[in-house]
Amino acid sequence: MKKIIFGAVIFGALTVLLVIASPLGDTMAEQNMPKEKAFRIERSMPKEAMACIECHKTEHPGLFADWAKSRHASANITCYDCHKADEHDPDVSKDHYKEYKRKDLKYGTKKYSVPVSSVVTPKDCSRCHPDEAKQYSQSKHANTLEIIWKIDPWLNKGMNSDVERSTGCYHCHGTILKKNKKGALDPETWPNVGVGRINMDGSKGSCSSCHTRHRFSLMEARKPEACGQCHLGPDHPQIEIYMESKHGDIYTAHSDEYNWDSAPGTWTPGVDFRGPTCASCHMSGAGTVLTSHDVTERLSWEIQAPLTVRPENFKPFPAKTDWENERNKMKEVCNQCHGKVWVDNHYVKLDKVVEEYNNVYFKPAKKMLDNLYEKGLLDKTKFFDERLEVEYYELWHHEGRRARMGAAMMAPDYTWWHGFYECKKRYSNYMEEARELIKHNKKAYKAEDFPNATGNTTKPKEVIPK
User: Fold this and answer.
1) What kind and span of H or E run contains 19?
2) Which among 52, 72, 455, 459 counts the fewest CB atoms within 10 Å?
3) What are the backbone dihedrals phi and psi of residue 197, each rounded to the nearest 5 degrees, phi first?
4) 91 with 201: CB under 8 angstroms?
């Protein structure tokens, strides 16, 4: 009897080994291996769309591969749907017509010729995403060029060059798209995906600032690195602040467990992710708070402004909402993971930080600056060509912002060492030099050779109509 049982066990073990070693076993082992995605052109596509796909597949394989893996491709949305234009549109690409005269291309014939634009704008995206486009148009992102032209001396005082602007400031804030004399997009303004780009169809912004073409990935836009492309550095280090915070620590440790691909409007704290990202706090829905592409919502302070004010009192671009309603929205987002007392007390601390910054640092510094101008010890003609102007600017634009933003996003090192600690040093040196000028009735040294202060100071009509 024992021999029979032993033989059965041996036979069973050999059977298992044979299954594992068999082609079926190989198939089972390969189920989780990545496979090449074959893109199939549907018969429902117009011939012009087919021409776009087949041509770009050869000419720009990276572009094609990105699109083929996108939700757009899965929904049969093609190059033609996003890039199509009317003959009379100002941003139509004239060079593209030449592609339909190429004898080396199967689709390079007049039969497939259609007007297209290289620039895809929020107006184009609104064909399928009307709510998102409308919300975005109301945001500070879409209107950021108007804001900086109203408050930034680099622009309105012409203290940097047009090249410095186009490769620096405008890279994130956006350019005013124009064509050159040859009818092509002007290299001074294109390429650009700035959040406040002024497009030739009159719309503002670029959806691909956050949803990079041609994948337009929800995952990418939901991750903090998408925001960190622009929100970084000495003046607005949100990405650094976030990564220092407990939220960033959780993201670093557990982001591989997050469900980044949940459908739009369904990304849920505690279900799809553990710790929040920039998008989950400022844009994604939570509880009864709806998803929004207006990042101006849920803000109860303008902590990037020189003097911290409520968003509806921010003169360059007043919010059309009430700060208390917006704070309650953000609190509800916070309450998905935190208790009420925790959330309420956080805002008590933030309000105290705002009060200290406003009253202890900014207001006295501004009063001193105005006093120096009134006495003629500083020259108002230009900004940044006298050291105290730079000191005043960096007090609010660098250290003052870092202190406020650090407190808002719970990053103590930025609130104190990169923030208020630096504010104290800057403020003390500023006041010392200012009092010396007043004491001796001495004009400040003016940098006559301030470099590259050559930028155009005329406010663009496309941004601020007269």
Assistant:
1) helix 2-21
2) 459
3) -55, 135
4) yes
Tokens describing residue 346: 């956080």
Q: What 3-state class would DSSP assign to 448? A: coil
CA pair distance 282, 291, nearest whole angstrom: 9
Q: What is the mean pLDDT of the chain?
A: 91
Amino acid at 189: T
For 369, the token pair is 């600056």
* Ranges of H-type helices in 71-160: 71-74, 79-83, 122-125, 130-137, 144-151, 153-156
pLDDT band, residue 20 (cuts 50/70/90): very low
Which tokens belong to 444? 């400040």
SS3 288: coil
DSSP letters spanning 62-88 = HHHHHHHTSHHHHTT--HHHHHB--TT
Q: How many CB atoms lie within 10 A of CB 357?
A: 25
> What confidence tier does 40 reach under pLDDT thresholds 50, 70, 90?
low
- pLDDT, position 42: 54
HEC secondary structure over 303-366:
CCCCCCECHHHCCCCCCCCCHHHHHHHHHHHHCCCCCHHHHHHHHHHHHHHHHHHHHHHHHHHH
Give Rg (Cα) of the chain.
Answer: 28
Query: Measuring CA to CA, how many Å separate 292 from each of 138, 176, 296?
Result: 11, 25, 10
Domain segments of the chain: what residues? Answer: 48-118, 120-216
Helix (H, G, I), strand (E, B) or coil at 12: helix
Please identify which residue in the block is written with the tokens 């925790």: 342
What's residue 13's pLDDT?
Answer: 46
